[in-house]
Amino acid sequence: MSETTQSDQLRSEQPPVRRRTGIGVVVAATTVSVLAVLLVLAAWRDDMLIDADKGVTSAEVLSAGRLRSAVTYVTPDGVTHNPKVGVLYPTKLTAGERINVEYSKKDPELVRVAGRDARVAIIPALSVIVVVWAVALPVLWLLRRSQRRGAAPGTPLDNTPGTGADVE
Q1: At what angle do helices 3-52 and 119-150 cross, to 10 degrees?
Q2: Which of 11, 29, 39, 59 could form a disulfide with 101 if both were Cys (CB 3.0 to 4.6 A apart)?
């Protein structure tokens, strides 16, 4: 096998791997972006469910975290609730604190901190999308650049002057 045939084979094998890698990067970044948007839409849906039949009461924060806080509260019918998934929009809460909460009378497990809504989820979701694409775009650019370098002279991917690829 001649040296030219071997190098042509190498060039024909490398672009599909780079192409698949690029597709994987785009799919991953798009998936994360869609999930971030769905998160905001789910928060908005939960808010609509709460607003449709809203009850307001005082609750005690049992445990507080950045992503999940447990609360307990009593509804007017005397039933004590401790939602398994915690309270929506739990930032800046401390254990032992008394807070006002809004809950769905139809589903008392669906509860949020009073005065907060899906708008607090928009900035974190947009931040995730920006960071994902800030990582993905340079990776795609590097893959494209390495694909151009690995292309055979005279192919449309090769932009080297004098190879015929720069003719319009």
Answers
A1: 170
A2: 59
Q: How far is C-alpha 43 from the chain's CA centre?
A: 14
Residues 6+ apart with CB under 8 A from 43: 88, 117, 118, 121
CB burial readout 10-29, b (16+ within 10 A) else e: eeeeebeeeeeebeebeeeb
What is the C-alpha to C-alpha distance for residues 13 and 54, in angstroms, rounded to an integer? 61
CA distances from 80 to 19, 102, 114 (A): 57, 14, 18
The 10s digit of each residue's pLDDT in 117-162 is 999 999 999 999 999 999 999 999 998 888 777 665 555 544 555 5
Among residues 86, 121, 88, 81, the alpha carbon closest in space to that of 105 is found at 81
Residue with tokens 């994987």: 24
Q: How far is CA 63 from CA 112, 115, 148, in A?
A: 15, 20, 55
